[in-house]
Amino acid sequence: MFNRMAGGRETCLTLIGFILICLKMVASLKSAPEIPTIDQAYSKISNSITVEWATVPGATSYLLTAEDGDTVIETMVANSPGTVTGLKAATLYEITIRSISAAGRSQASPPKQAKTVLAAPILEVSSPSSDSILVQWEAVYMAIGFSVSIMRANGLGSIWKENTTNTSLTFTSLEAGTLYTIKAYAWNANGIPGDDSTCDQRTSPRAPANIQVSFDSGALKASFSWAPAEGAFNYTVMALSDSSELTCSTTLSSCTISSLQCGTEYLISVLASNDAGSSKSSSAVTLKTVACAPGRVMIQEDSPGHLSVTWSDVDLGDYYVAFVKSDDGLEVHCNTSLTQCNFLSECGFTYFISVFAYNKAGQSPLGDIFNYTTAPCCPSDINPVLVSSDRVEIVWSPVRGAELYETKAVDGYNVVECNDTAPACTLSALECDTNYNITVYSFSEVRGSNMSCTPQFITTAPCSPEIKNVSRDAFSMINVHWRSTNDDATYTVTAQGEKGLYQCSSVGESCTMGGLPCGSVFSVTAVAETQAGRSLPSYSVPLETAPCCPTGLTVTQITQSVINVSWTIGTVAQTHVAVLESHTGQSKCHTHLNHCLLGCITCGINYTVTLKAISATGLATDCSSQNYFSSACCPLGVKLYRLGPNGIRIYWQASRGSANYSTDLYGSKGIFTCTPRAGLSFCDVAEIPCGDVYTVMVSPVAETGLKLTFCPKKIYSVIYRGKRNED
């Protein structure tokens, strides 16, 4: 097929081709096939013309040509009938035909005119409602009317046909959600119909009915279901509130919308849709969600042991439930239509508080969980384990909720504090014998101090007394005087040394103690005691008792005028003073030894011997005295007379005073002693050997029977009978 267009390059090329064909036909004129004759030419389709002709012998094909004055369209066909396509609708064409064989082609047949039918209208269909279809098209060239028919696509039912000169038509009273087939064509002034146009259109579905709502209060979502609508492909559920619009889409007959807002009233509607469009909204259903969790929750402890919980009112809330759970697991709650609940509480607990609102939809979502820690409990078993003059140690059992303990001791003007995490405290630097108001406050970081704790009154131990003086009276009693500022105190004075401990007590400012051993050093302290306790001891004062009297006082006559006083040295005594005294006078010596010689005594006199012990510090003890009778005076005028062949009489002159005497003769052949009867001044010694030299001593005999040996001695020789020699 060749197209020849007027003008331009294509036209030129077509002419060249035509000339070449003519030249070829001329060259083979003798063998070209016959020219066909067109029987008829007609158009059933707007873009083609069908041609019928008688068959030409020898022709193998035919060339159909259609020309409208502007364009030439050629089509090669094998036999009759043949159709020229690619034509314009409603256009008059001149049709010719040539037969073609191996020898060439014939000349064109006589022309025959034929007109293409009207073009089919281009349809636009829609379903404005569930029971109607709107058909629209643009005007068709040379058309004066249109025929439109509709029927169910499944072939059931009747055909509804409408003619119109308009370019739109609406079919009503159709079935919802049903697929229809629409067919339309135009006709010209001669009533000849043009091409038809066919399309399918479904009516939109009806609104879903019987909507059911199921609300999940915990997840804040709602599930919706409905009766399926005929012809619906999809469904859309819309939940509208004052502040939001939520949707869900599905091909099923149920759908779930999540993320609903609490405390909101929604209008629920369901749309059904298909390829034709959407249905009208279903009748709206009201959905009230659960109320929102109450806000502005406030917790107050109006008084210890009473919690007040308040909150703000919420939309759609019918009533409220407040839950209070303590950290030991115990939970209580209250129901109210108000916005406040009161609970009993205990010290030292942390309470977890949540408030829910309720309505017919259920429980509100969990809001914030608030916690409130009550003030820690106050220690109740405060026990002073040590009370001294300047310090108080107290302990108590740990109490619930306390992280720290604050202990304060107040005496009216001064405050002493100590803070510790342990249930014990030592208050130092206190005043002695002072009444303190001691309070232990429990403290927690969350709640602070519990200021309702009860104080306890504790009095510190008394002040230490100050010893002012330690004195000793004539009876060796120790008097101790002190100064103190304590009230109602009992004082105990202690003298402690190597030889023991001695005490005296008094409620005044002095006391007396006796029986302290001599020759001892003591440390004297005083202690005050009240119901609060004992004071620290006072500063010690040294006390030295007088030295002990020596024992074993012995007086020995050394000579007629000298005696020796000896003793056993007493404890602590450094020196001693010995005194010998009579009506005739006194003799005294001071020595650090344990004996002393006293002279110038008179024989035969009764003396009093006293001894005084003196310590290194000058303390003296007058020891007990004893009587001493000095020995009788040595006799005078000692003479010896021969008595018979073997006897001797010793004669002497007795000294003043009465005394007993003893006579001793000391010779090489023995010692001879005689003791005269009392009152005599001679003594006879018989049977002594003669011719020997004797030492003779006449000695007074003490009351103890001790014979004194300090009297002078005389030597006598006995030569012969009746004669004596005396040296």
TrEMBL record:
It comes from the Eukaryota. SMART domains: FN3 (SM00060). CDD domains: FN3. Pfam families: fn3 (PF00041). Residues 1-28 form the signal peptide. Residues 32-119, 120-206, 207-292, 293-377, 378-463 form the Fibronectin type-III domain. InterPro entries: FN3_dom, FN3_sf, Ig-like_fold. Keywords: Signal. The keyword Signal applies. PROSITE patterns: FN3. This is Fibronectin type III domain containing 7. It comes from Callithrix jacchus (White-tufted-ear marmoset).
